[in-house]
Design brief:
The chain has helices spanning 29-35, 38-41, 45-61, 67-85, 98-110, 123-159, 179-204, 224-230, 240-245, 248-274, 302-325, 339-360, 368-376, 382-391, 396-413, 422-428, 442-448, 457-488; strands spanning 164-169, 172-178, 282-283, 365-366. Helix 4 (67-85) packs across helix 5 (98-110) and helix 6 packs antiparallel against helix 18 (457-488). It starts with 28 loop residues before the first helix and ends in a 15-residue tail after the last helix. 58% of the residues lie in helices and 3% in strands. The protein folds into three domains: 26-119, Fumarase/aspartase (N-terminal domain) (Fumarase C, Chain B, domain 1, Orthogonal Bundle); 134-374, Fumarase/aspartase (Central domain) (Fumarase C, Chain A, domain 2), CATH 1.20.200; 378-448, Fumarase/aspartase (C-terminal domain) (Ribonucleotide Reductase Protein R1, domain 1, Orthogonal Bundle). It is elongated, with a radius of gyration of 30 Å. It has a two-stranded antiparallel ribbon with strand order 1-2. A two-stranded antiparallel ribbon has the order 3-4. The chain has 503 residues and is mainly α. A hairpin with a 2-residue loop joins strand 1 (164-169) and strand 2. Bound molecules: arginine. Arginine (ARG) binds at residues 37, 41, 97, 123-124, 127, 332, 334, 336-337.
């Protein structure tokens, strides 16, 4: 058993590791396991080292450490970054978390000077900084995937410009629409999702917690603006209590992730419905479907079902963290250690769901005759018949009632509206003339809806152009940002929205 204060030897199971001084008894083994966060926070080892490099650099510049000491620490930390990237670090639960594990690794590497790294710093400002950096990297990756998925939707919309599908309200056939119009609706949703993630980034980047200390700041002459700049933040957090206890950035991230998952889930639900035998609108690719162990004929849309299902765990992460935070007095509380697992899981889940959606969609097969047929059934042209009468001067309310009577007649005869002969139509309203049938063709119906944002071919083409232009603009901005960051920083942690970042 280690003696209290015996910090020079590696912590043993049941020891009191880094803070031995005031403890006479060893930590209970279950308490140690319960308390440890290394299994989760090792995922931000790279960011922890990034924060430490900035901190050590600043300590050297401010004369808090000698230039030699700072240089030794920075060199050791960079070596550790390489080790982390090569997955060569052995993590120990006795050292509780990523911060203490890495500090121990550093000390083993550079000797006693490693113990100076924690001057003017606490794990509280350290973890708040690391977590922001780790989420920043994940947000950049998600932004890139959202961008790519929008591109896939736009390409598909272009490919399926002339495919007509039933449009639904209440999942009852309502009016025919272009499939491209339907796909571009999701493109709009994902564009707003990107906006939400960018907003999250802008606030996340506006406040660097490092230097807030445990809660009250520090008496050492640190330069918080310098560390903030080194880590790519626009400013240091203004209030040290807020700096160590704020997790809004993670909540915003989870809220944005939840909304994005909700969008993917709705799309998945449609793929599940559309690929069913009853609809038969699309066939999903073999690569993204599975069979049954008992029913040889089955082809199940498991990927779409899982995207729909995994939406629940992302919502769960949001509700979990909101609940963790709601009763906490200022400033840091250990409860907050529960913040990372759900957030990292949500990031991974969303990224994987976007990847799968973007891969699967272009490989689907669309059954255009079947969707067209479905779009002409179930009185989907009833509104157009009423519009016809309204254009002849009948008040729309009366036109609606007249067509309602025609629907009843058609239902009784077991036919569609366009199967009713002119005499029947004229019995209900003398405004009907022979040209009415031309207005009931499905293409004519779709192209008649030519109001801004409508489903007419020309309007959908305009939507396509706008969406393509916005996407190209975004790619150009990302390229400019990439060039700028290549020029200024050699080891910038930030990537850009269109890069295929993997970390
Ligand atoms: N593992 C801790 C967390 O994730 C790090 C901060 C610990 N701070 C402390 N005062 N015990 O929250």
């Amino acid at each position: 058993m280690s003696r209290p204060g015996d910090t020079a030897t590696p912590a043993k199971a049941g020891g009191q590791g880094m803070w031995g001084g005031r403890f006479a008894e060893a930590t209970d083994a279950l308490v140690q396991a319960f308390n440890a966060s290394i299994e989760v926070d090792r995922a931000m080892a790279f960011e922890d080292l990034e924060g430490s490099i900035a901190h050590a650099t600043m300590l050297g510049e401010q004369g808090i450490l000698t230039p030699d000491e700072a240089a030794t620490l920075v060199a050791g930390l960079r070596d550790l970054q390489r080790q982390v990237e090569a997955d060569e670090v052995t993590w120990s639960i006795e050292l509780e978390d990523v911060h203490m594990n890495l500090e121990r690794c550093l000390t083993e590497r550079v000797g006693a000077v490693g113990g100076k790294l924690h001057t003017a710093r606490s794990r509280n400002d350290q973890v708040a900084t690391d977590f922001r950096l780790a989420l920043r990297a994940r947000i950049h990756r998600i932004l890139a995937l959202l961008h790519e998925t929008r591109g896939v939707l736009i390409d598909l919309a272009e490919r399926h410009l002339d495919v007509i599908v039933p449009g639904y309200t209440h999942l009852q056939v309502a009016q025919p629409v272009r499939l491209s119009h339907h796909l571009l609706a999701y493109q709009e949703m994902l564009a707003r999702d990107q906006g939400r993630f960018r907003d999250t980034l802008s606030r996340l980047d506006a406040a660097c917690p490092l230097g807030a200390g445990a809660l009250a700041g520090t008496g050492f002459p640190i330069d918080r603006h310098r560390t903030a700049a080194l880590l790519g933040f626009t400013e240091p957090a203004a209030n040290s209590l807020d700096a160590v206890s704020d997790r809004d950035f993670a909540l915003e991230f989870l809220a944005a992730a939840s909304i994005a998952m909700m969008h993917l889930s709705r799309l998945s639900e449609e793929l599940i419905l559309w690929s069913s035998q009853e609809f038969g609108f699309v066939t999903l690719p073999d690569s993204h479907t599975t069979g049954s162990s008992i029913m040889p004929q089955k082809k199940n849309p498991d990927v779409s079902e899982l995207v729909r299902g995994k939406t629940g765990r992302v919502y769960g992460a949001l509700m979990g963290l909101l609940t963790v935070m709601k009763g906490l007095p200022l400033a840091y509380n250990k409860d907050m250690q529960e913040d990372k697992e759900g957030a990292f899981d949500a990031a991974e889940t969303l990224a994987t769901c976007l990847r799968l959606t973007a891969d699967m969609l272009p490989r689907w097969q669309v059954h255009a005759e079947r969707t067209r047929l479905a779009a002409t059934r179930a009185f989907s042209n009833a509104t157009d018949l009423a519009d016809y009468l309204a254009r002849k001067g009948l008040p729309f309310r009366e036109a609606h009632a007249a067509v309602g009577r025609l629907v009843a007649i058609a239902l009784e005869r077991g036919v569609d509206l366009h199967d009713l002969d002119l005499a029947t139509l004229r019995e209900v309203s003398p405004f009907f003339e022979a040209d009415v049938y031309r207005h009931l063709e499905v293409e004519a119906i779709v192209d008649a809806r030519d109001s801004y944002g409508g489903t007419a071919r020309q309007r959908v083409e305009e939507q396509l152009l706008r969406a393509r232009a916005a996407l190209a603009e975004e790619a150009a901005q990302a390229a400019t940002a990439r060039e700028a960051s290549d020029d200024t920083a050699s080891d910038d942690t930030a990537s850009d929205d269109t890069a295929q970042g993997s970390r």
